[in-house]
Write a structure and sequence with these properties.
By secondary structure, the chain is an alpha/beta fold. 28% of the residues lie in helices and 32% in strands. The protein has two helices and five strands; from the N terminus they run E-H-E-H-E-E-E. Strands 1-2-5 form a three-stranded parallel sheet. A two-stranded antiparallel ribbon has the order 3-4. The radius of gyration is 14 Å and the shape is globular.
Length: 80
């Protein structure tokens, strides 16, 4: 089941985890205050390397100023 996931911060950690979740089929959006970073992610994607096979991911990225235009939803789980 695919989930919509939003990361505030497209730095090393947010981009790395967001890339893995994108590759797994989730709808990931990264929010970042650096316009150049947002533009690069949207144009070229993210090249992921590490102790695994390298891969390319293409999560969506939006500038922090544009994040207020994202649809707001919340999900809660009731406990038995």
């Amino acid at each position: 089941m695919s989930k919509k996931i939003l990361f505030v911060g497209a730095g090393a950690i947010g981009s790395y985890i967001g890339s893995f979740l994108t590759r797994a089929g989730h709808d990931v959006t990264l929010v970042d205050p650096w316009a150049e970073n947002v533009d690069t992610i949207n144009q070229k994607g993210i090249s992921v390397t590490g102790p695994h096979d390298p891969f390319e991911a293409r999560p969506k990225a939006v500038h922090l100023n544009d994040a207020q235009r994202l649809p707001a939803t919340s999900r809660s789980r009731s406990s038995p």
